[in-house]
Amino acid sequence: MVSRYRSGGSKGRRGAVLLLVGMALAVVVVSGGWLFAGKASAEAATTDTTSVIPPGRDKGPAPDPDLAKMFSDKKNCLSCHGDKSLEGLMTIKRPDGSPIVLYVDRTGLAGTVHRYKDCTSCHTADPHDKKSPLNKISLSAKCGSCHEYEYAQYKDSVHGKIQSATNSDAATCTDCHSPTGSPHNIQRVLDPKSSIYPKNVAATCAKCHNNPQLMGQYGIVERVYSSYMRSFHGKSIELSPDQSSIQQLDTATCVSCHGSHNTHTISTGDGTAGSASGTDDLLATCKSCHPEAGPEFVTGFLGHKDVNSKDEPVVYWGGKGFKYFSRFMLGFGLLTVATSVSIRSGSYIRRKLKRGKKGSEE
């Protein structure tokens, strides 16, 4: 009898201790996650997103043994330009020093929208007999030989105007329409894997606009990508499923406000929604999605600028106050739960110990 009670008391004590330890660990984990959540989100907002397309969305179709047959190549260009062993020999430099690779990765050809166009359609019948400038100006002009309307808009855009033979900073056709910047794997706009599919547009623009060093050269200091992703529009896009249809992704992205091929600076003031310059143009931009919007709709709009205590003190301090108040309340709630659990666990353990001691005495 004594042995049985002693064994029961020992098991009770072990169970109580394990319960208490488990609860304490749970409180520590929850508290740690809460304490470091703000720091992690702040670091994420300032992280350079040069690799911007989500994992698994930029790999394209799986390799196919008959891949070369899926791409028109009457001159057999890929016998050299598709040879992986020659890749190093086919990397040259533009006048501004940026590299250009003449090697063509066959794995990207099956998914390109131009896979049924022969190489000579863009490179002429005898490309080796004609010297190409190999800069972004010639590249956009070549695309414009078919896409005339888009090219006319691009030439008048902020990107097209600063293009030169010695400056390849500004985006051209392949920087946006290809996930790798190559003209040989341009993807359809409506392809969910496309770098300009609505869900991927902000990340594509961030390849340049989330680069502080590059943007600093042109006087752009706002963290446009992180501020967009913190907005309602950015969160709506981010939380939408990866395979959302185009109809489901009806939230504003960069091109909804700034235009695509006809992107202008915000100081253009040309009266178009794409320029988003001044109150009138900004209102016109918002009305393209919010037709009932009035002048008061854009009064407090800050664009991509961070809220600060000087320009918007009420919004700034209100946000700060809510941030710390909510954290205090959450911490107080966790402390209350932990205290309650400790008290109840202590009572439970004392009862078990008392029963075990009483059993051993008997």
Please, could you describe this protein's structure?
This protein is mostly helical. The protein has a domain at 1-46 and 316-362. It is built from 14 helices and 2 strands; from the N terminus they run ααββαααααααααααα. The protein has helices spanning 2-45, 78-81, 120-123, 136-144, 148-155, 158-161, 173-177, 201-209, 212-216, 224-230, 232-239, 254-258, 278-287, 313-361, and strands at residues 91-93, 99-101. It has a two-stranded antiparallel sheet. Strand 1 and strand 2 form a beta hairpin. The protein is extended, with a radius of gyration of 30 Å. The N and C termini lie close together (8 Å). The model is unreliable at 1-9, 34-68 and 271-276 (pLDDT under 50).
Short description:
With 362 residues, the protein is mostly helical. It is built from 14 helices and 2 strands, in the order ααββαααααααααααα. α4 packs antiparallel against α5.
Name its key features.
362 residues; mainly alpha; two-stranded antiparallel ribbon; 14 helices; 2% strand
Overall 3D form = extended
Q: What string gives the helices and strands in order?
A: HHEEHHHHHHHHHHHH
Largest sheet: 2 strands, antiparallel
> Strands of the largest sheet, in order across it?
1-2
Low-confidence stretches: 1-9, 34-68, 271-276
What is the number of strand segments?
Answer: 2
Report the structural category. Answer: mainly alpha
Give the mean pLDDT: 76
Helix-residue proportion: 40-55%
